[in-house]
Write a sequence for this structure.
């Protein structure tokens, strides 16, 4: 095998690496055809890669063999303090013809990232590529999050007796606000230990009061014996700040939120709410439904795959401490 040459990623690498990215996406779509066909085109991949490259403080590495590119990695920091002193390799930020080379690419790129003080590393990796995921695992990364998709198609779910789902009304605001807090409350605990922000009940009530009639969101509540015990929200995927670039299929609905009060969990309300959002997405004309979850959230990581969601991208994470 010819020698692998590694060097920092520069603008001169964009076009060649866009071809690698388009090839990666073509392979990804064999496993996950609901992803957008658009990025199989090298010009569309180039536009995404250029955006990634032009993100402030972006940097990375590229690998060549016999004069041809065999891989790249490109990351950039997010300004939110939520992620720590971070670097993110997003959905357009890596491709290789040889997964083992990703370890060399990371080694070079991470030298600069850590020199710059960016020690919290996140990588959004195509889920179908087990060898690539393994390469990242053998760099000390673990899975933090899953992005997933399913077709927008009705399923024959039978809502358990005593349980019903309907669209939310203004009268539901106090319970909707309480349910908003259940997600950060749950994810603050073991084993998720999420550092996500925990708003107040008053803030949640104020947001719902301003937003309950927003036609861009379909809000559902589940009732057990006439009492609201859960809620879920559907919207167009474009409203999400995640699922960007190659991870954003066209005409996709989004299961953006769901929560069930602790005492009512595990008896089918989450399934009924998720199904209501999927059925809404079908009626609204979406082709697919996207969602995501923390894989350490024992509840959502079990509930959503049971509703037919399959992984598209895995977000991997490594925290470097000295
Ligand atoms: C996630 C959540 C909305 C799911 O609602 P729920 O009412 O608890 O879920 P359900 O009882 O409908 O269960 C949904 C599916 O998960 C499965 N499931 C639930 N608990 C499970 C467990 N311990 N092990 C394996 N599967 C489990 C159920 O069997 C069901 O699948 P099935 O219908 O094929 O049997 C709810 O648990 C919750 O509010 N969690 C805290 C907030 C949160 O995590 N929100 C999601 C944000 S991404």
């Amino acid at each position: 095998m010819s020698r692998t040459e590694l060097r920092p990623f520069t603008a001169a690498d964009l076009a060649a690496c866009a071809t690698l990215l388009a090839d990666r996406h073509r392979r990804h779509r064999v496993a996950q055809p609901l992803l957008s066909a658009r990025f199989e085109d090298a010009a569309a991949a180039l536009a995404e890669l250029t955006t990634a490259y032009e993100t402030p403080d972006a940097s990375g590495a590229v690998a060549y063999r016999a004069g041809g590119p065999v891989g790249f990695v490109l990351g950039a920091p997010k300004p939110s303090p939520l992620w720590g002193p971070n670097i993110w390799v997003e959905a357009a930020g890596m491709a290789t013809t040889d997964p083992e080379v990703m370890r060399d690419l990371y080694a070079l790129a991470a030298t600069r990232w850590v020199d710059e003080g960016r020690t919290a590393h996140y990588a959004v990796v195509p889920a179908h590529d087990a060898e690539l995921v393994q390469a990242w695992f053998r760099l000390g990364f673990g899975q933090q999050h899953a992005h997933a998709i399913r077709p927008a198609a009705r399923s024959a779910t039978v809502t358990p007796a005593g349980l019903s789902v309907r669209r939310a009304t203004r009268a539901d605001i106090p319970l909707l606000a309480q349910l908003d807090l259940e997600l950060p409350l749950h994810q603050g605990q073991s084993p998720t230990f999420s550092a996500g922000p925990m708003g107040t009940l008053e803030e949640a009530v104020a947001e719902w009061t301003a937003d309950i009639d927003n036609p861009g969101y379909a809000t559902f509540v589940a009732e057990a014996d006439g009492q609201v015990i859960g809620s879920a929200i559907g919207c167009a995927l474009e409203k999400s700040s995640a699922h960007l670039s190659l991870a954003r299929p066209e005409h996709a609905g989004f299961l953006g939120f769901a929560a069930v009060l602790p005492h009512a969990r595990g008896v089918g309300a989450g399934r009924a709410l998720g199904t209501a959002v999927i059925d809404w997405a079908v009626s609204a004309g979406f082709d697919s439904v996207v969602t995501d979850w923390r894989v350490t959230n024992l509840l959502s990581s079990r509930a959503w795959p049971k509703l037919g969601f399959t992984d598209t991208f895995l977000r991997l994470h490594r925290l470097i401490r000295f």
Summary: The chain is about 35% helix and 30% strand. Residues 151-311 form a domain with the Aminopeptidase fold (CATH 3.40.630.30). The longest strand covers residues 142-151.
